[in-house]
Design goal:
mainly alpha, 11 helices, about 0% strand, single chain
Length: about 230
């Protein structure tokens, strides 16, 4: 009786699992070493595949880095896009978005390092500068959707008059900065800022800050109508 051998992860017999393992290992390598310092042999070793298989799925390091960026930003847009598609009043929608964005970053703590590295390296002389593609594919659509929420909220008298060109980057910065600065805060406080209770406290503070910066104070009559 013949025994059917299972395909090893490091073979082409399990393409989805192999590709996913390579991407996960690449996220770790690019987050810690950056695009310049990352090594494909280290990624292959971490993913438990041979280097030939890595190049079978990704033609070179630049292509792999581009796939990592798509995973980082594509995952975010998919996650917050579901929230922004809900039929919610402007106040609830902007808070749901901010909470979802925060949760996505909190659940992927290595992603901010990759984003920061790409931003800081904008304009570097590389064969595959990805920033223009990332802006076109992910940033502009997200900015457009958030701008629309702000306009609807302002028209309804729920939001203060703010310039989306200024407010949207500020809102995203408040959400993300905590995670990009975590190593500094750990040294300053002597405590781990990524402990669940500290992340939860930061999440509440972020939502409170955004609402205080954006929400129009309702008059007593308006508050009564909402109750």
């Amino acid at each position: 009786m013949k025994t059917i051998s299972k395909s090893r992860l490091g073979s082409r017999g399990r393409p989805q699992e192999s590709r996913a393992a390579i991407l996960q290992a690449a996220v770790r390598e690019f987050a810690h070493e950056g695009i310049a310092g990352a090594r494909t042999d280290a990624i292959a070793r971490d993913a438990k595949v041979n280097k030939a298989l890595l190049y079978y799925y990704f033609k070179d390091k630049e292509a792999l880095y581009g796939a990592v960026l798509d995973q980082v930003f594509g995952g975010l847009i998919e996650y917050v896009g579901e929230v922004l598609s809900r039929d919610l009043p402007p106040r609830e929608k902007v808070m749901a978005y901010a909470g979802a964005h925060f949760d996505y970053v909190a659940n992927h703590p290595l992603y901010p390092r990759i984003v920061q590295g790409e931003m800081m390296g904008a304009g570097r002389s590389r064969a595959g500068n990805h920033l223009e593609r990332i802006v076109r594919k992910y940033f502009r659509p997200l900015f457009g959707r958030l701008t629309e929420v702000l306009k609807v909220g302002q028209a309804a008298g729920e939001f203060r008059t703010v310039d989306p060109q200024q407010f949207v980057p500020s809102m995203i910065a408040v959400i993300v900065f905590y995670f990009t600065s975590a190593p500094v805060m750990r040294l300053m406080s002597g405590k781990d800022p990524l402990l669940p209770e500290r992340v939860a406290a930061r999440r509440a503070a972020v939502l409170d800050f955004i609402s205080a910066a954006l929400f129009q104070r309702l008059s007593g009559k308006a508050r009564g109508a909402r109750q």
